[in-house]
Amino acid sequence: MYTLFMIFAKFITRAMTKLSPEVCGSMKIYNFEEKVMLNTVYIRVWVFPNAISIWCGTNSAFSNLCASVPVRMSPIPPSIPLLSCSDKCQSLAQRLALRLNIPVFVSFENMDGLNDIELMSKAEKSIFNYVKEIMRNDIEEPIH
Asked: Exposure pattern of 104-141 as b/e (b: 16+ CB <10 Å)?
């Protein structure tokens, strides 16, 4: 059962990498994968009309997120703080907010041996490019 769920989660993640969001009211949700060293980092982005929330984690944390918090029932899982708690998350959120001109909240969870500095140095550019592409698409197709 767990293996079947993992295959399904990977399929959904790969399918959504083409910027096809799941829409929940006035919010869009995107999922991405990024290779960081030997690990796959999963990135989930919630795009609200006036803010963006970003969650990053590895395979096991992403599986727990998908299993415990169905998207339609709760837009943001309880593990994502409203304000970034670590200095590293906060500095990434501030850099993204300055570059994107919108409030950004960032949370990292259970990086399976990767420390936050390694993750951010390897994945920050990809996270920024994903979010920039999302913002470009949302300007072309606004959220109703």
From this structure: bbbbbbebeebeeeebbebbeebbeebbeebeebeeee
